[in-house]
Specification:
Layout (H helix, E strand, L loop, with lengths): L1 E8 L8 E9 L10 E4 L8 E3 L2 E17 L5 E16 L2 E7 L4 E8 L3 E8 L5 E8 L8 E8 L5 E7 L2 E8 L10 E26 L2 E4 L8 E2 L10 E8 L3 E9 L4 E10 L2 E8 L6 E9 L3 E9 L2
Antiparallel strand pairs: 1-2, 2-14, 3-5, 4-5, 5-14, 6-11, 6-14, 7-8, 7-14, 8-9, 9-10, 11-12, 12-13, 15-20, 16-17, 17-20, 18-19, 18-21, 21-22
């Protein structure tokens, strides 16, 4: 059964943004993974099955492939995420918990080659990673094992704590974290050329960030595009629309005329489609502002807008 609950907390740190605290659980007894976001290698269309109330990742090929399943609640911070997993025989080269934030930055708490527990952080684009923790572990017994990660604190400092089968293993403090890197999509994943893994009993508590975002239905754009805001000039509200031709991690950021970041309007994984975001500038001074859309690591466009208070 899938269960999501929210308790809204009004927070006026930035205009147009609220924060929602909630819980999410899924034991896959519904027989599907509705709402979960699947991310796999670009050349492969992979998706797990649900069998007997458990999520089953099974795939093999000559090349190494990756499949991640990210929770339906979107980008979160202050998150505690727990999942049970076991090897179905082949296991996976890497398997565990994965969090993806802006600019392709990732945090992984995984089992490597079935016998090494690791906590690492780095960037998917550059391939540079730091190992925060490493210890031997045994997953070849065919039993279920529980992994849990807590990510707490706010930018620029966050704290990461990991557990294995209910035992706390390590705590790491990470400094110089950018604001848009403090929110991430989180889920579980497997990677390898011969993967056979089972997952069950996902539970998480979190804080999510929300803005006024509309998804335009039944539109599948063929091109990446950022449109001029409307109205422009505006006071104090305007709508920014954009389209993305393929699913990816999307950031939409507003800057002032000096290039200082004013507000992050979007910072999450989105499916192919057209979107409209409402920008509330009632706490800003009149003048020119820029808004920049970035999808993945290679698509980016910037436009100018004028606020008249």
């Amino acid at each position: 059964m899938r269960k999501v609950s929210f308790s809204l907390v009004v927070c006026l740190v930035m205009s147009g943004i609220t924060f929602a605290q909630g819980t999410f659980t899924d034991n896959f007894n519904d027989g599907d993974m509705a709402g979960w976001i699947a991310i796999s290698n670009e050349a492969w269309e992979l998706y797990p099955t649900v069998e007997s109330g458990q999520c089953h990742m099974s795939f093999s090929s000559e090349d190494e492939n990756a499949l991640g399943m990210f929770s339906p609640v979107g980008a979160v911070s202050e998150v505690s995420f727990e999942v049970k997993g076991k090897s179905g025989g082949a296991g996976a080269y890497y398997t565990g918990i994965l969090a993806i934030s802006a600019e392709g930055n990732v945090l992984e708490y995984h089992v490597m080659e079935g016998d090494t527990l690791q906590l690492i952080a780095g960037n998917m684009v550059s391939g540079d990673f730091d190992v925060f923790y490493e210890a031997p572990v045994n997953t070849s017994d065919g039993n279920w094992h529980t992994m849990k990660i807590d990510i707490s604190g706010t930018a620029p400092t966050i704290n990461i704590t990991i557990w294995w089968d209910g035992v706390q293993k390590h705590t790491e403090q990470v400094n110089d974290v950018a604001e848009d890197e403090a929110y991430a999509h989180i889920g579980f994943f497997s990677y390898g050329d011969n993967v056979d893994m089972w997952f069950d009993d996902v539970s998480m508590t979190y804080t999510s960030i929300t803005t006024d975002v509309e998804e335009v239905p039944n539109i599948m754009p063929k091109d990446f595009a950022l449109f001029q805001n409307y109205p422009n000039p505006f006071n104090p509200y305007t709508k920014i629309s954009y389209s993305i031709s393929k699913s990816g991690f999307v950031t939409l950021t507003v800057y002032d005329i000096l290039g200082r970041k004013i507000q992050t309007l979007m910072n999450e994984f989105q499916k192919q489609g057209e979107y409209i975001v409402t920008f509330d500038a009632n706490k800003l001074s009149s003048g020119f502002y820029f808004y920049k859309l970035k999808v993945g690591s290679d698509l980016m466009e910037t436009k100018k807008m004028l606020l008249l208070q």
